[in-house]
Hints:
Blueprint: H1 9-20, H2 30-59, H3 61-71, H4 76-89, H5 91-102, H6 104-129, H7 132-137, H8 141-163, H9 165-177
Helix pairs in contact: 1-2, 1-8, 2-3, 2-6, 2-8, 3-5, 4-5, 6-9
Amino acid sequence: xxxxxxxxxxxxxxxxxxxxxxxxxxxxxxxxxxxxxxxxxxxxxxxxxxxxxxxxxxxxxxxxxxxxxxxxxxxxxxxxxxxxxxxxxxxxxxxxxxxxxxxxxxxxxxxxxxxxxxxxxxxxxxxxxxxxxxxxxxxxxxxxxxxxxxxxxxxxxxxxxxxxxxxxxxxxxxxxxxxxxx
Length: 182
């Protein structure tokens, strides 16, 4: 998400790839499983999107660097200042970024991230609203460790989703509002 962790896209992509190899198993807590299943589906759908983005920035170094730097900004004001400074002082980098976000490949990535981005936000909120401690407290002791592991997997998936595809979703929204995307 904007204000994302300071990990590089390559590192985030690797983390997403590694996390995608972990086997998903259903939770015995129905209230949790309803949200977990959707988050897992979103994660599964999002990994190839971010992988394509990571590959794309390898071939578009300047555009990718600006995109990554923009994702680190916490507010629209910081993003506006960053873009204005880039345009005024590093016009070649600014033009490279504009070309990067407007090329056909990036357009495809943005469209795919739009498809899942809003749902990531909704499901993250739903998962965070669940009183996991209370629900775990209702389990037999023998189930506790396994269920905690399942919740940990989902929490890690949410973290990666927020730092990857949801950030792309937000970047698109910002770029569109700032009229940087044609």
